Amino acid sequence: MHADAYEHGPGQSPEHDPEHSPEHGPEYEIYDLVGVGIGPFNLSLAALADGTPALRTLFLDAKPAFSWHPGLLMEGTVLQVPFLADLVTMADPTSPWSYLNYLREHDRMFPFFFSERFHIPRREYDHYCRWVAEHLPSCRFDARVTEVEWDERHEAFAVTHRSADGAVSRVRARQIVLGVGTNPVVPEPLRPLLTPAHAGRVLHSADYRTHRARLAGLDDVTVIGAGQSGAEVALDLLRHQDGSGAGGPYVRWLARTPAFAPMEYSKIGLEHFTPDYIRYFRALPEERREELVRAQWQLYKGVSEETLAEIHDELYERTIGGTEPRAALHPGVVLVAAEPERAGTSTSTSTSTSDGYLLTCRHTEQDALFEVRTSAIVAATGYAATRPAFLDTMAKLVDWDEQGRYRIDGDYRVALDASVSGALYVQNAELHTHGVGAPDLTLGAWRAATILNAVAGRTVLRVPERAAWTTFGAPGARVPEAGAPVVWP
What we know:
By secondary structure, the protein is of the alpha/beta class. It is 23% helix and 19% strand. The protein has helices spanning 40-49, 99-105, 109-115, 122-135, 208-216, 228-239, 275-282, 286-295, 297-300, 305-318, 431-434, 444-456; strands spanning 30-36, 57-60, 139-140, 144-151, 156-162, 168-178, 183-184, 202-204, 220-224, 250-254, 327-330, 333-342, 345-346, 356-363, 368-374, 376-379, 383-384, 423-426. Strands 1, 2, 3, 4, 5, 6 and 18 form a seven-stranded mixed β-sheet that branches. A five-stranded parallel β-sheet has the order 8-16-9-10-11, covered by helices on one side. A four-stranded antiparallel β-sheet has the order 13-12-14-15, with no helix packed on it. A hairpin with a 5-residue loop joins β5 and β6 (168-178). The two termini are 38 Å apart.
């Protein structure tokens, strides 16, 4: 443990700073860095910054406590990255906030050792993150940020946040980091059905666990989406079918992708999740980056081989003796339309609870339309970064690209108007500029260390110059943030 980790923690009141005059009051404390949102990525930054007491940091989140994808924390699901990709280890293995230290603190080191796990249960990863968040003095929950604006007089960002009981507080920050996460994406045909009348019958997989028991009791459930979440929901529903084949829902799995494909997990293939690939990707023209992200779906939207094998095993078990499986898998399918049905008739204007839904689908390779009738729909269709409403007050100071997205440099700093002397950073909103590693936990600690070094203006944590055996790009290509030639072997 760092010797000074708790003596002058970054969450303490900076009352001894000469800039904090009495007239400011506690609601106007000035921090070197304020983080908005406490998911794994900002929590990683908070944990790494905890070993740097010279920096005053504060992290705010609207939730009452840390939670990570609670709707998908089913028993038996595991993290898709090894346990070393925790909040800190890939940047600082000596940190007290490592997963291994979590095991030690909870007397689970021997059980973990004997289990010979490299990929840990998701439920335990969530518990590990909650343990870190509860012990870091810089993390403050029940603090919904409502406004961020540039205070030119004090050369700082003014951050307003509100608690659930309505209490309003304000702090100032020389630098801001956004870690607000991503929001569920639902196919356009399903959006009109996301109303209270269809609650628990039409939903995103983010809410699956909440409605799991009800879905398991229906006759027919359709899962849309070929990624890990879609696979896990389909597998869980299959496991709710009883041995006779009569109980539990008929499970239909639809996917836009041409196949239910495994995630790329070869040792060389994983080098796309290294700083080397990020530097290469950032130097490409924008249109080429857009093409690559679409083409590389198996790098970050595929399914683990283990989950695909488990689905196959469930189907195999159910067909012993010639029994037809109560399941169907349809890749290469796009949802065209969806409407509620009642008693054998359909109407797209019904506001009452429906008996089921009629889906119109198109098989992309055959260009053939077909219909599906189902009792419920689970859209495991991913997440996307969106602009948070609290940035509206300073939106004119952000240099948005042609598609309204952040322009982000190699230190994850957002391009702002020249009049703003402070810095704004983002985490997991840079898929378009940094590539497929943006949402991946593997690069979380490395990215947090990169931001921490930029915030501190010095090297707090050393980050590797090279991490991959693969040469991305032609020899002699230039590193975009430095302009210096890469030295190739």
